[in-house]
């Protein structure tokens, strides 16, 4: 595989895209269930992966957060394969 050093900018950008920029210095254990779900989705896209597998990414999200997540996924699909289960 190829080694990719993740920059602080890349992490901040991804957290901003999923609505977690204000939680940058928080531990995952202190996030709500929906915020943890967003964090796991954001982590899947770090490193510009060409193929991303997501298992029920909107499970446990309220309707507003679910819509935001699906909009994020639509934005991130360009140049990638996203497999949803």
TrEMBL record:
GO terms for cellular component: membrane. Residues 7-58 form the ABC transporter domain. It comes from the Eukaryota. GO terms for molecular function: ABC-type transporter activity; ATP binding; ATP hydrolysis activity; lipid transporter activity. SUPFAM superfamilies: P-loop containing nucleoside triphosphate hydrolases. PANTHER family: ABC TRANSPORTER DOMAIN-CONTAINING PROTEIN-RELATED (PTHR19229:SF250), ATP-BINDING CASSETTE TRANSPORTER SUBFAMILY A ABCA (PTHR19229). This is ABC transporter domain-containing protein. It comes from Lymnaea stagnalis (Great pond snail).
């Amino acid at each position: 595989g190829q080694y990719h050093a993740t920059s602080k900018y890349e992490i901040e950008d991804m957290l901003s895209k999923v609505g977690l920029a204000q939680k940058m210095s928080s531990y995952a254990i202190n996030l709500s269930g929906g915020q943890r779900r967003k964090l796991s989705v954001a982590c899947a896209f770090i490193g510009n992966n060409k193929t991303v597998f997501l298992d029920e990414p909107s499970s446990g999200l309220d309707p507003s957060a679910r819509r935001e997540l699906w909009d994020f996924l639509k934005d991130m699909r360009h140049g990638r394969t996203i497999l949803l289960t």
